Amino acid sequence: MKWLETIDRYRLAVAGLALSVVLFFAVNIFSNAAFQALRLDMTEGKLFTLSEGTRNVLAAIDEPIRLRLYYSKLLGERSPRHATYFERVRELADRYGEISGGKVILEVLNPEPFSDTEDSAVAFGLQGIPLNNTGDLGYFGLSGVNSTDDRAVIPFFTTERESFLEYDLTKVVFTLANPERKVVGVMSRLPIDGGAMRPPFTQTPAWAIMDQIREFFQVRSLPAELREIPEDIDILMLVHPKGLNDFTLYAIDQFVLGGGRALVFVDANAEVDVPPGGRMTSLPRSEFNKVLETWGVRLASGKVAGDLDAARRVNVRVGGKMTVVDYVVWMGLSRNNFDTKDAVTGDISLINVASAGVLEKTKDAKTQVLPIVSTGPRSMGIDAEKVMIRPDVVGLFRDFKSGGKPLTLAARIKGT
């Protein structure tokens, strides 16, 4: 009888194992069918969890967008970090294809030296980096085209910008899905777009920043006095607003309240706003606090920022001798001064600033005022009049008294 019990136990074990195998395959088949679109992101920082903004962009695509990911295998062999980053880029782009319902099409190419694929990468404007002494270049970039042959390019995926991968990739897709350029309305009494401002009315070229903006947007100059912002303006850019009447201020405020976006550049010491000969009849400062305060922020009255740690060293003559002094209102701001999590400032390593104004959050602010550029803690607000004409560089350094907290130089304002 014992041998019969042994056989029964053996049969039960085999049957149990067989049932386990059947259940294993059944669960996997059911899961694949029922939860095909469900994914769990366990990576640190949620690398593959897309933002709502990206999902909205992908859902709104009307026509196919073809992405070509150029990646040199030799680059991955020489740099394991780039190899890992390539896998992330490829998987994220594949995810874009899934969410867009196949509208985003990914093609991975290996641009070997002297190949047609390398010629294609160069033609799209991708950047190669030297891999060896023979001059071979490695590529790791992306080009995108839509049905009307509009193009968008990421010349090279730098590992320093890896935290902004979703932003950069979505920007390419959005640009191709919406080839019509946004319109930037520029309002300023300064000749930033060229022209003449005061006698003798000599023509001046446009500022370099305007050429950069025109690479991505349509630019329209707006008069300094108007009753409403034109409906086709997507972004309003105000540079050193000054002397605006109440109708214009109201139009600007209504544009923002209606959902429009504004870039506002205000200054407590606009060095460029100086008449010929240097004779000033009024302080060269912006006048926009009337509107800014309704948004929860103000430009500190008559103050410029000084930073002891970021101060640039300059040569000055003291007692007939040249000496080196830290000019506290001329600052060389580094990554410690930027919000590295913000897409605007996250990739900036250095900005030189001269006599910058200070932004202050109002006490009753109902908006979010998020600093994106700030001084260091050893800073203070300095009277703007002290730096306007023949500043005492040594005196400013000697009289410097740290306030013990950073000062906001640029901020993002969000909210109702």
Description:
By secondary structure, the chain is of the alpha/beta class. About 30% of the residues lie in helices and about 25% in strands. It has helices at about 1-35, 50-60, 75-80, 80-100, 115-125, 165-175, 210-215, 245-255, 290, 385-390, 395-400; strands at about 65-70, 105-110, 130, 135-145, 150-155, 185-190, 220, 235-240, 260-265, 295-305, 310-320, 320-335, 350-355, 355-360, 370-375, 380-385, 410-415. Strands 1, 2, 3, 4 and 5 form a five-stranded mixed sheet that branches. Strand 11 and strand 12 (about 320-335) form a beta hairpin. Residues about 25-45 have low confidence and may be disordered.
Number of beta strands: 17
| Helix coverage percent | 25-40%
**Biggest sheet, in brief?**
5 strands, mixed
| Radius of gyration, CA atoms, in whole angstroms | 29 Å
What is the N-to-C succession of helices and strands? HHEHHEHEEEHEHEEHEHEEEEEEEHHE
Beta content: 25-35%
Low-confidence stretches: 25-46
Question: Multimeric state of these chains?
Answer: single chain
Which labels suit this protein?
4-stranded parallel sheet, alpha/beta
